[in-house]
Specification:
Layout: E1 6-9, H1 19-31, H2 39-45, H3 51-62, H4 68-85, H5 94-103, E2 107-111, H6 116-126, E3 134-136, H7 149-158, E4 165-169, H8 172-180, E5 184-188, E6 203-205, H9 208-217
Helix pairs in contact: 1-4, 3-4, 4-6
Length: 223
């Protein structure tokens, strides 16, 4: 691969350790209907899936007697409320590598299935927004991951060629989205049990330190 000009990042599970946060939000809603989701089930079947899709699946699974639009609206409001008052930890080495990439004059963009208001709430608390030239959220597209639309929109708005971009994702839906858009995609997943699902990624790493070392050692970014 060529040395990238732009690095495109997923948010949840890639930059921020938000899976348990989202799991807790869903359980807060499910408890109101007498249901409960296990964290193992969440990671296996729901992590990395767009909110509307998960809402439909959970309503069906637990036989929730409430209109789907009402559940989606309740979940979106609850998520935003919690993000405004609760810090979500960064994934390992994220702060260091973002600063490193930024200092090396790489273009950084965010491509996420979260709505814009959630991203703004997260960045307001952790300060990461300063690194990103472009942010593409679910709000700006009609189809969420694994559809390639969000990545195609991002590349077009950056005015770059696809071979000049490198994507970082942590779930199969994210990797599928990037690959369907014709982009090189590195998967970053610390849970080795998930690695078999991510074999369509171009490379697979445990964390961002491994990514940085790989890029430097292969002279794809400056040392």
């Amino acid at each position: 691969m060529k040395a990238p000009k732009a690095l495109l990042f997923d948010l949840d599970g890639t930059l921020i350790d938000s899976e348990f946060f989202h799991f807790e939000c869903w359980n807060e809603i499910l408890t109101e209907s007498g249901a409960k989701l296990t964290y193992e089930d969440w990671l296996k079947n729901y992590a990395g899936v767009p909110l509307p899709t998960n809402a439909a699946r959970l309503v069906e699974k637990y036989g929730i007697d409430k209109p789907l639009p009402q559940i989606i609206e309740r979940r979106e409001k609850l998520t935003l409320e919690r993000l405004k008052t609760k810090d979500v930890n960064l994934m390992p080495h994220v702060a260091d590598v973002l600063e490193y990439f930024h200092q090396n004059a790489l273009i950084l963009a965010l491509v996420t299935s979260s709505p814009r208001q959630d991203v703004e709430a997260v960045f307001e608390r952790n300060g990461l927004g300063k690194y990103f030239k472009l942010i593409i959220t679910r709000t700006e597209v009609t189809k969420s991951k694994p559809d390639p639309e969000s990545y195609l929109v991002c590349v077009e708005k950056l005015g770059l060629q696809k071979e000049e971009c490198l994507v970082f994702e942590d779930t199969i839906n994210g990797v599928k989205s990037a690959k369907a858009a014709g982009l090189t995609c590195f998967a970053i997943q610390s849970n080795t049990d998930e690695h078999d699902k991510l074999t369509i990624a171009d490379k697979l790493f445990l964390d961002f330190k491994e990514v940085k070392d790989y890029l430097v050692n292969n002279r794809l970014i400056a040392a």
